[in-house]
Design goal:
The complex is a heterodimer of chains A (about 300) and B (about 450). With about 300 residues, chain A is an all-alpha fold. Chain A has one domain. In chain A, helix 1 runs antiparallel to helix 8. In chain B, helix 2 crosses helix 13. The chains are: A mainly alpha (about 300), B alpha/beta (about 450). Chains A and B meet through helix 1, helix 4, helix 11 and helix 12 of A and helix 1, strand 11, helix 9 and helix 10 of B.
Chain lengths: ~300, ~450
């Protein structure tokens, strides 16, 4: 039972981190009809800003943390203004390819800066408790993961309030429904795009911190963890924020349970599932869900008039 | 949006993502090129004494340039020049270490040139060509240099070097690898073209287990193995499994996914659900820190015997959260050669040369670069002595020659069709510039000692 709870705790924490990236995916998709592959790179860029400020420059961690997240948002905004804005009206495939290019560009620059040695972010989490963890009834909870979970919950609540109560939030929703109608109503769609990218960049940065914080370290391979949020948005539905959260939790929990119970599963099915199955399993779930619900669990169902 | 379009985006997105993550894959390319006739055989006598020296591609009677890439060559103007190629990773996952490897290699030949060169020749490495650690680009980089060099000073990566082996075979091009695959010691794999140095992961794996059992105050009954399949993990795992079988140790689990599919949660999950007395990681620094830290948080501190790529001196740097864990006496690292500070003539020469070049680092990658050139130097010396500096002559020399390294590695007989079995074992320690204190040098455990090294590669 304790191992089950442990796997659940780790799965929820993983899901929380994925959800931060996944919400960024969804925000951009809803606003621009494009899946931005630059999100994983932005996640590690955020971590790099924090590391550069806190460790290399000696800035107090919490200041570096806030500045790093804002800087990532600004970088994301600049990317939208310089690379994406000229692509308005172009086929979405072209724009998606462009975001892959941006992802590679960011990671290439970043990889040179990171180097081969792991970089740490200078956060205090590993100094709390037992190397950054607490044991509750035999279940080890990591402070960094608890923080990731709480951050994800707070971010989701704040975004919900923002979308419902604020002028720009309502404008973003209007833009996501129908860009032309939004324009006709006097909404500055360009400004909304910029705001979406700014928020998505900051969310990616939060995720980047939780992926690389503590002793996880920032390396050239850190972006892969952020990349794993992709099946989450597909499972949840590309245009649904609640879907992104639920999809992320499904992915995280699947990964967590397979990580701890693969041997039992193999005994059950009678054949080996292979190394790396914990990362394959979420994709299997994604395929099954897409077979049943092609738009994802919470995605808007499209009706094509013949 | 139309459903089909949305599904198209999803499918396209996943495919594009996989491509982006994998760096473009490794599409095979057939290069149509007539193989030059090889008149010598690999079993020809290697070393003779000839009056004149026959030369070929990559060897000139003109002197070497005074500098390459801004680095002085110390070449003798009165001597000819032997040009070496370099297939380095400037933009891939090992881009960060490329400068250290290259600097050490250029420094090595600078030292050789300043101390008399190779016969009537100085030696320089041409400007390196980027391989991005990608087999296809590795082949392109090889093609860019194949008509200009007598041999390769470095071919980085096992799969990458295997990918160009056919072309090297056609060209009689030998080269020093920057990888420690056990197959490099066997003609059945490398066709006598790869000038190996140091022990392979397989022997390191055997020695890691035997040394831990003999030297540590822990009764090791069950172990776990983790690593990257397809790169160095398989060789390492096979060595450990052999030693475990000999010692009656149970291998509780093996976790060997491809590099990009390695899941830290699963690695820690295995350690939690199937606790072991010791585990043997052959992973990268990212995974190593997370696995070790994750296990420790769960109250698990089994002995960790790390393969060389798993350890990084940043783990014992001031400020790193896990420094106390890495220095706790439960973690040890394997290597094919002693660390930077070691007391051998070769290490002293290396340190002096690096200092003369203005370097203050004690990086293990400098040691890797420097040590990789010793055996190549021995081959070139044998080829000059044999009077044949054509590629075929160099290849013939590499097929049967004793090579020295001023104490850095043991004397090795190239072409003997057996891998080295000696390993170096260290302990993470911040008091050393390299982050490692040497505990055992040229260690050979019972498994490595009894293993039939004439039987072929471990994987």
């Amino acid at each position: 039972m304790i191992i089950f709870l442990q796997a659940t705790a780790e799965g929820l924490a993983l899901g929380a981190v994925y959800s931060l990236v996944a919400i960024g995916f969804v925000l951009i998709y809803k606003a621009m009809d494009v899946l931005s592959f630059a999100q994983p790179a932005l996640a590690v860029v955020g971590a790099a800003f924090i590391s550069a400020l806190a460790v290399d420059r000696g800035v107090p961690f919490w200041i570096a943390f806030i500045v790093g997240i804002v800087l990532t948002g600004i970088l994301s905004l600049i990317i939208e203004r310089t690379f994406l804005r000229p692509m308005v009206g172009e086929p979405v495939f072209s724009v998606a390819i462009l975001t892959i290019g941006i992802d590679i560009l960011l990671r290439t620059v970043l990889d040179n800066w990171i180097g081969l040695n792991p970089r740490y972010l200078g956060d205090p989490f590993p100094s709390f408790g037992n190397f950054g963890s607490i044991n509750i009834g035999g279940v080890v909870l990591k402070y960094l993961e608890i923080s990731a979970f709480l951050t994800a919950v707070v971010v989701i609540i704040l975004l919900s309030i923002f979308f419902k109560k604020s002028k720009y939030g309502v404008a973003m929703r209007a833009t996501s429904f129908d860009q032309e109608a939004a324009l006709a109503q006097g909404i500055d769609v360009g400004k909304i795009f910029a705001l979406v990218w700014f928020i998505a960049g900051m969310l990616a940065s939060f995720a980047g911190f939780f992926i690389t914080g503590g002793f996880n370290t920032l390396t050239q391979f850190s972006f892969i963890s952020a990349l794993r949020a992709l099946p989450a948005v597909v499972i949840g539905g590309l245009d649904s924020i609640p879907g992104a959260v639920v999809g992320s939790l499904i992915i995280g929990l699947t990964q967590g349970y397979v990580a701890y119970f693969q041997a039992d599963m193999e005994s059950l099915v009678g054949f080996p599932l292979g190394s790396g199955f914990s990362l394959v399993a979420p994709y299997l779930i994604m395929f099954v869900i897409l077979l049943v619900k092609p738009d994802g669990l919470f995605g808007t169902e499209e009706v094509e008039r013949v | 949006m139309k459903p089909l379009r949305k599904q198209g985006i999803i499918i396209f997105s996943i495919l594009a993502l996989v491509l982006a993550a994998c760096g473009g894959g490794t599409t095979e390319e057939t290069v149509e090129e007539a193989a030059p006739e090889v008149v010598e055989t690999l079993d020809s006598p290697a070393v003779t004494t000839a009056a004149g020296v026959k030369t070929g591609v990559g060897v000139t009677s003109d002197p070497c340039p005074a500098e390459v890439g801004g680095v002085p060559t110390m070449a003798d103007d009165s001597k000819g020049c032997i040009y070496l190629g370099m297939l380095n990773d400037y933009t891939g996952p090992y881009a960060a270490v490329a400068p250290a490897l290259e600097t050490a290699q250029r420094g090595f030949w600078m030292w050789v040139n300043s101390t008399g060169g190779i016969g009537d020749y100085s030696v320089v490495i041409r400007e390196g060509v980027d391989t991005a650690y990608n087999p296809q680009k590795h082949l392109e980089a090889y093609n860019a240099q194949r008509e200009e060099v007598a041999a390769l000073a470095m071919s980085l990566g096992t799969p990458q070097t295997l990918f160009i082996l056919d072309e090297m075979d056609k060209d009689n091009m030998i080269g020093a690898p920057m990888s420690w695959y056990s197959g490099w010691s066997y003609k059945s794999v490398d066709r006598g073209l790869v000038v190996e140095f140091g022990s392979a992961y397989c022997a390191d794996g055997m020695n890691a287990l035997d040394w831990a059992m003999a030297s540590l105050p822990v009764d090791i009954k069950t172990i776990g193995i983790m690593g990257f399949a397809g790169d160095y993990g398989t060789d390492w795992a096979n060595g450990i499994k052999y030693a475990a079988e000999k010692a009656g140790v149970t291998v509780a689990w093996e976790y060997l996914p491809p590099t990009l599919e390695f899941d830290v949660a699963q690695a820690v999950g295995l350690m939690v659900t199937q606790p072991v007395d010791a585990y043997f990681p052959a992973v990268g620094p990212t995974q190593m820190a997370q696995v070790a830290g994750g296990a420790f948080q769960q109250g698990l501190t089994p002995i960790a015997m790390m393969a060389a790529p798993s350890y990084n001196d940043a783990f014992v740097a001031e400020g790193f959260a896990l420094k106390p864990l890495f220095e706790s006496g439960t973690m040890y690292n394997m290597a094919w050669v002693a660390p930077y500070e070691a007391d051998t003539p070769a290490h002293a020469t290396m340190r002096a040369t690096m200092q003369a070049m203005g370097l203050e680092s004690a990086s293990s990658f400098l040691v890797a670069g420097w040590s990789s050139q010793y055996h190549l130097k021995g081959v070139l010396e044998a080829a000059v002595k044999g009077g044949d500096l054509t590629r075929a002559g160099i290849r013939r020399a590499a097929a049967n020659v004793y090579v020295e390294s001023d104490g850095m590695m043991l004397t090795r007989e190239l072409g003997q069709n057996r891998a080295d079995k000696e390993s170096f074992i260290g302990r993470p320690d911040s008091s050393a510039g390299s982050g490692t204190i040497l505990l055992a040098g040229n260690y050979v455990g019972p498994a490595a000692d009894s293993y039939d090294w004439n039987g072929g590669p471990c994987s």
